[in-house]
Amino acid sequence: MADSNRRHHPSTASDAPVHMAAVRARVGPAALRARVRITTCGLMAGTALVTSTLLSAAAIVAVSTRKLPPGTLPAGMRRSRW
Q1: Would you give the DSSP letter of residue 69?
Q2: DSSP 3-state of 42
Q3: Interatomic CA distance for residues 15 and 12, integer angstroms
Q4: pTM above 0.70?
């Protein structure tokens, strides 16, 4: 049977390298089948998104867990030891 219903995206150049991955998993009665096709530009964009998310989360954790020097608490706040 010919695959004539396949969608062609005009934004993807025909000579752009496309990376493909497939996975099949089964655990008891549950099953998973997935296929992914992505261009090199899409792969780089996804990598940049994940990297920026991880770096921003690391910065937020570093700032929120730092210990302030003595005498720098705002007025009306007390330091507690739990």
Answers
A1: P
A2: helix
A3: 9
A4: no
CB 22 within 8 A of CB 35: yes
Distance of CA 29 to the CA centre of its chain: 29
pLDDT tens digits, residue range 9-56? 555 556 778 999 999 999 999 999 999 999 999 999 999 999 999 999
CA dihedral 52→24→35→40, nearest 10 degrees, is: 50
- For residue 71 the two structure tokens come to 């005498």
Structure tokens at 40: 């090199």
What's the first-to-final CA gap in the chain, in angstroms?
69
